Amino acid sequence: MTDSALHAPAGTERLPRARFWHDLSFWGLLPSRLLMGFALILPIFIIVAVSVATRGSHGGFSWSIDPAGYRQILFNEGWSGEMEFTPQYLFIIARTFLLAGATTLICLVFAVPVAYFISRQPPNSKAILVYLVTLPFWVSMILRVYAWMIILGKDGTLPSLLGTFGFPAGTSFMFNDGATLTAMVYTAMPLMVLPVFASIEKLDGTLIEASHDLYGNRWVTLRRVILPLTAPGIIAGAILVFVPALGAVLEPTLMGGGKQMMMGTLIQLQFGPARNWPFGSAIAITLMVLVMLFLIVTALRAARREARS
């Protein structure tokens, strides 16, 4: 008899540890693990491998290691073979983050009052309003973007309406960053409203009444009560809007006319007409790293806020 068995309390026996191939939970979760591995993890490793491959002379790539894809983000080879600094791709990255940040901020400004209004409605009206918020998801994104092309384009709804007030005929609001931002805000708005609504709905109404009883106006109540208590929903909505906006392709292509590229359109161009797969993969990995850094910073800030509270 072993020492552990001699010192064990009476009536208790140490059971042998089950091997992992006898564990039902291991086999039950195996299909989901394999699916995540083949659908999520393996493609990332493939993109990483392609990003350091050598570009083929007629497109494609060869499996010889060459970090030229990452180097091309900052430098370009001159006529005499020297490396020249080219900030054009940095401008594209900056424009992408600027438009994604503006989209997130505008969606937040409109989502908070909309979500607050919906949360204060009767149950039947609340269900109908939530359904109306999710209604755009039932329509293809391409159709929604084309609808804005009809509204903002030449001889569209908005130029025709403004023409009645003396604006020049044939004015077009298309093919600029403003049109791209408008379409991005429209497509991302439900992704911000729903998480904010879920947080505001759980908010105790007596806290708002207490703020008014203490002579707090609506701005003070919003800044000192509503926003801090609904911060988890706001952070979730910001992530759901900001991250997809970084990889937007349809909006800058159709609404921007491809004149002012974003990272999503740049990646599509490299895998399509340019046939520079290593550079496209390098841009994709760079975008993924930037998104991961954003998520890590957001998670750390949320953890510190929760620790303080």
Descriptive overview:
- The chain has 309 residues and is mostly helical.
- It is globular and about 75 Å long.
- It has helices spanning 3-7, 24-51, 68-74, 88-119, 123-134, 141-152, 157-163, 177-201, 205-213, 218-229, 231-246, 250-255, 263-271, 277-308, and strands spanning 54-55, 61-62, 75-77, 83-85.
- Helix 8 packs antiparallel against helix 11 and helix 9 packs antiparallel against helix 10 (218-229).
- The strands form two sheets. The chain has a two-stranded antiparallel sheet with strand order 1-2. A two-stranded antiparallel ribbon has the order 3-4.
- The protein has a single domain, classed as MetI-like (MetI-like fold, Orthogonal Bundle), CATH 1.10.3720.10.
Number of strands: 4
Rg, nearest Å: 27 Å
Structural class: mainly alpha
Number of folding domains? 1
How many separate helices?
14
Q: pLDDT average, as an integer?
A: 85
